[in-house]
Amino acid sequence: MSPERTAYRKIKDLSREEFILPGTSTCGGCGGLEALRLATKVIGEKVVYVNAAGCFTLLAIFPFTPFRGSWLYTTMGSAPAGAQGVRDAVDILIAKGDLPREEDVQVIVLAGDGATYDIGMSSASGAIQRNLDFWYFCYDNEAYGNTGVQMSSATPFAAETRTSEPEPLTPEGTEQKKKDIFEIWRAHGAPYIATVSPRHPVDLARKFEKAKKIKGPKMFIAFSPCPTGWKYDPSKTPEVAKLAVECGILALKEAVNGDVAHTHVPAKRIPVEEYLKTQGRFRHIFEPVRREDAINAIQEQVDRYWASVNR
After folding, report:
1. Cβ atoms within 10 A of the Cβ of 93, count?
2. Number of C-beta neighbours around residue 7 at 10 A
3. Dihedral (Cα; 293, 298, 300, 304), 10-degree rounding
4. pTM for the complete prediction?
5. Cβ-count burial 141-172 (b if 16+ within 10 Å, e if not)
6. Closest by CA position to 41, among listed 73, 71, 8, 87
7. Helix 121-129 crosses helix 181-188 at what angle (to 10 degrees)?
8. 251-271, pLDDT tens digit by residue?
């Protein structure tokens, strides 16, 4: 059953009960799975997960599942539509008296950045417009990880992917900047949006607990370090996630009915290159020739963001 805690002040306040069992077939060191594991400690087991095709499809391969909850698999672009069907069916059964109200469930979309930022955006937009009461958990590993690590619109500037490799015409790798899905959802009027990190579990738990009290579309953008696609040792996932926050590339924040608040502001941000150096996908901007232009462009982008926050 779901934990009854309503206040999270330290790591020991998180439930020790597990709602995702170990031994999944996802990659070792997956930051997205760790973030989801922490989230389920707040949400509990009365859940229907609606999975958009992606890395997390590997979590439940018939007839096995690690979840204490139900699982529905959909195409990459239709998970929010699937969530609408589940939510409507449960609501109708409860209204007709065919399902006891205490058997109600939470409906959670699980989708990667490819489905969220690109292929499934129209389906999500419609669900938000209809004010569907559901959770949207985006495990953002900044690429199409399940199909070979191709560039998505969540891939950051200067990252290397299989479809944005450094070459003479584009020595920086990815030319585009990462799409701001937080602001896109905020422009849609979603009542709750948050960024979370597996390295900040108390911050994550507080946000999921707050969202439990809010009806309507709830979006969580989970920073999801990916050893396979980002090219680092799986044991380094906590370090990579920590550095992303300390350098300011990842801003931990939430928007409640459109009002944005940052839940963690680094006291003194470290240089972004301390984060970039941990990953092989950025190696080409450090060697064989150091690309000061690319490094400075990333640092300036982060500086501009935090300057706007601190105004």
Report:
1. 14
2. 8
3. 160
4. 0.95
5. bbbbbbeebbbbbbbbebbbbeebebeeeeeb
6. 8
7. 30
8. 999 999 999 999 999 989 999
